[in-house]
Records
---
Amino acid sequence: MNRDNLITEIKARKSFLCVGLDTDIDRIPKHLLDTEDPVFEFNKAIIDATKNYCVAYKPNIAFYECLGPKGWESLKKTLDYIPDNKFTIADAKRGDIGNTSRYYAKTFFEYLDFDAVTIAPYMGEDSITPFLEFKDKWVIVLALTSNKGALDFQFMTDMAGEKLYERVLKITAKWGTPKNLMYVVGATRAESIGTVRKNVPDHFFLVPGVGAQGGSLADVANYGWNDNCGLLVNASRSILYASDGGDFAEKAQEKAQEIQQGMAEILVDKGFI
Amino acid sequence: MNRDNLITEIKARKSFLCVGLDTDIDRIPKHLLDTEDPVFEFNKAIIDATKNYCVAYKPNIAFYECLGPKGWESLKKTLDYIPDNKFTIADAKRGDIGNTSRYYAKTFFEYLDFDAVTIAPYMGEDSITPFLEFKDKWVIVLALTSNKGALDFQFMTDMAGEKLYERVLKITAKWGTPKNLMYVVGATRAESIGTVRKNVPDHFFLVPGVGAQGGSLADVANYGWNDNCGLLVNASRSILYASDGGDFAEKAQEKAQEIQQGMAEILVDKGFI
């Protein structure tokens, strides 16, 4: 999916919600465990329940990998089931030497046909550029993550006062464009989102950390907004596990709708719709 | 496998060679493509040909993932086929928030039963510690990688003159011990291996970049040696693709033996055997 289509979908759906499909076999309702493919059955119900309220889906690959080949089958079926007008993100946090990154790119962009994949920047240019060679596919570089460990290295400061995450933004922005490159910017560091926005005014941000991790949607919009919205805000656990009973899909729908309504207000306030 | 067993194997085998199973379906000999599982057949032949000359095997997960569920089956069969006295490394370069890293750890340590997994440090402590909770399992943190892109961020210098890769060494060394933590240190930056060794005198290094990438075994031993050898030197393409014909296994054996003989000389010179 290209940038124009994504912006069109945000306007049409009045939402910049991404639903994170971190489908944990240990947390899905027990009655699904009797089905042939519980992970896919769960995802199918979640997608049906939330597709009117979101513009993107983001399976975290860890939850599929841990089930072996069967997990990859569930993932492939999930991808095939997601409606074509949704932006799909492989939350994989890959990155290797160029020769190897090419194979990760084939996995996520060709075999699974995701629109985007998340990439860890530590290994530099040749670990990222192989992913940028695919038409209408996106790299989402980890810049400022939502977890506590983000403080360990991402805020390291050089002699000119520039932090590692700022260097990541400045340097990686030269390798792609706002049409094929986004950044992960955690909602739990609201005040830093503004710094990120100054560094890369035109790029979309994928923002985790609203919901279970405690970030605020209003802060994210306040600090991260740009003229094209520029935000995909992810919620995973707060939607997926809103209930662990037979009403899980209904509760997921309510939660997704609640978030979408908050987003619609922001979109109206900003004069975007 | 624990540290003592690894050191015992290095002495017994007179080798600190790790064979990288970066098995590329597009590069394996054509006659194998008619078999039911070409990737496994290739790995089986490579393992049989090289097991007398190495102490470790390191499949790079990218080459298996790109084949979908079948690739994971080939990987699982390969792991089951590797002799028990070999140290096995999942070259996966994973790393996510704690809740998610736990699932990657389950994948590689429980489902696939690897001894070790490579981890990208960008996301900090909670992305790494879930991997350190498994008995006799290892985390191998990317410190100084062998690729050109290593220069983009790993050499960033803070106000006290400390580089990012040095900070990664110092900080991550507090989370584990030399009994469950190693570092990736590229052979292509020989002079920096000495700096890494000063920072972490007791840890093992996994050293890629000898062979196809141009690093020198003598330099690695010169700069990286410690009292327990402290080195696992990886070669992948130079062994795997020594020939693309029917004699591929024979040529792989010759290449592995040649490297092992160089290592045996170093081990004797150092008085280790």
---
Amino acid sequence: MNVIEAIYSRRAVKHFDAKHRMSEEEERKLFEAVIQAPTSFNIQHWRFLVLRDPELRAKIRTELGNDQSQMTDASLLVLFTADVKAWQKEPQRYWKNAPQEVSDLLVGWMGPFHEGREWLQRDEAQRSIGMAMQTMMLAAQELGYQSCPMIGFDIEKVAELVKLPEDQVMGPMVAIGKGTKDPWPKPGQLPLSEVVFENSFA
Amino acid sequence: MNVIEAIYSRRAVKHFDAKHRMSEEEERKLFEAVIQAPTSFNIQHWRFLVLRDPELRAKIRTELGNDQSQMTDASLLVLFTADVKAWQKEPQRYWKNAPQEVSDLLVGWMGPFHEGREWLQRDEAQRSIGMAMQTMMLAAQELGYQSCPMIGFDIEKVAELVKLPEDQVMGPMVAIGKGTKDPWPKPGQLPLSEVVFENSFA
């Protein structure tokens, strides 16, 4: 499947075949693709939590997830999170295969770029989560799967339930599976003229 | 080009052919693809600013952009922003083609979901920016272009320069063009075991 086809055919699918099992190889392919998504300074601060346990999924669905069936029926359910302090945690490892002077330069910039700018650390984390989510959803299209990004759950309580580490921020879940119903037509696409501007906003 | 190829071949390219011109049709194809990226509640809160004027680009590069040549040499330079208050601005239009009961339901949820949760409004905006960025960069691969996501500029001063509206937040720029140098090998990919977890982080 080519890229443009995947972009247009990806839709938020709400109904998945609960009996379908994704192979280990397919799951591995998906994650290997996801970690090709870019991060600033190659910081790779995303952390992916596979919600595998059926009881855990059922609990999230019924108690914290507005009874969304994708949470139990998807073949793969992944919670996207990111470590906003990854820049402080042995940053040399993100550049270990680069020439020493390149590594020194980039690692040297990471500190001042993030230091004291909590808003930027969080913005960066959420953007990286977004890039990784779309990478996973488009790769899924190619593997013959459908997907659904989901933020409609009790974010704080799910964080507690999965023991989110202190430095990590929560993102959405992505459900991947075999869709059983066609999605609705797009509900109200804004024209390009309302979202694309040139040189200045005013 | 298939999706997996595009995901693996996309790299942050630092040197572009300054003489190459992108056609209007190619640019349109890119933006039409970008707005297929998902947003929660179909809110479509991204706003894209095409930095077209060569003088503006030169000013950003030399005064606010650490002299990064992509800022002047890319065939297309886009600043990604998003409106964190889009949920308050005629939200019916995001669902205008849906059946009335679906539209009422979704539009009715948007208010309580966002109300009083400034952190979530901003997280959502930045994630949508991330999904749109990766969509543009992967679509560019298919059209025979390379790209570079860029956050290494004076964010506050660029916001001022382009007259960022009050409700909008800044994201990165994406440069698209014809690369003239192969990128470095990946500098230090973390293994899946360091970023993928199961059921619980602890």
